[in-house]
Amino acid sequence: MEHRKTYYSKEVETPAGPLIIEGPIPPEKLMQYEFHEGLVAFRQPEQQHEALIGIANLPEGRIIIARSGSTIVGYVTFLYPDPLERWSEAKLDNLIELGAVEVASEYRGASVGQTMLRVAMMDDQMEEYITITTEYYWHWDLKGTGLNVWDYRKIMEKMMSAGGLVWYATDDPEISSHPANCLMVRIGARVDQESIQKFDQIRFMNRFMY
């Protein structure tokens, strides 16, 4: 399918100052921005900055950012699922994964994550995608927030619902390994029935294995 990216932006007020939420951001623009030193959830800030530039270079890759001036303080990534994950086995070119959401600690609590997801879904092409996200409790900042897994999951569900993602059942072993883990999905308005059926088949790959 042809991947079209339409830019949108929104300004939000936070206790730490105003932010611009914008995207999808092209790689050359990402290179011009600095990366907040507190964005360390997945890897060191410099490496994560490079990873975002790499994703933005992909035909399907989408990066939505929150920035204060020229400093990126939050981001959301969308790209095809990892080839090693079951979600890639359907070979659907209209299935993308919301891979990472991160917001620097001083900007949390101001719905920055939710606003990034709302901006992401402003692009009409998102109606042509099945968008998924896999939530694993071992990726969550339980120590930094002081929350237990269930309270953190409620926050994640609330944030994802801002982008129209809802809970879906699956027999994926990693997701099934802990009750707090979950699969969340948004099926765009223009996704065809055949794609939905293929997606349902990979959601439940073990249903006949007794």
Automatic annotation (TrEMBL):
Residues 47-121 form the N-acetyltransferase domain. InterPro entries: AcuA (IPR024699), Acyl_CoA_acyltransferase (IPR016181), GNAT_dom (IPR000182). GO terms for molecular function: acetoin dehydrogenase (NAD+) activity; acyltransferase activity, transferring groups other than amino-acyl groups. Pfam families: Acetyltransf_1 (PF00583). It comes from the Bacteria. One of its GO terms (biological process) is acetoin catabolic process. This is Acetoin dehydrogenase. It comes from Domibacillus iocasae.
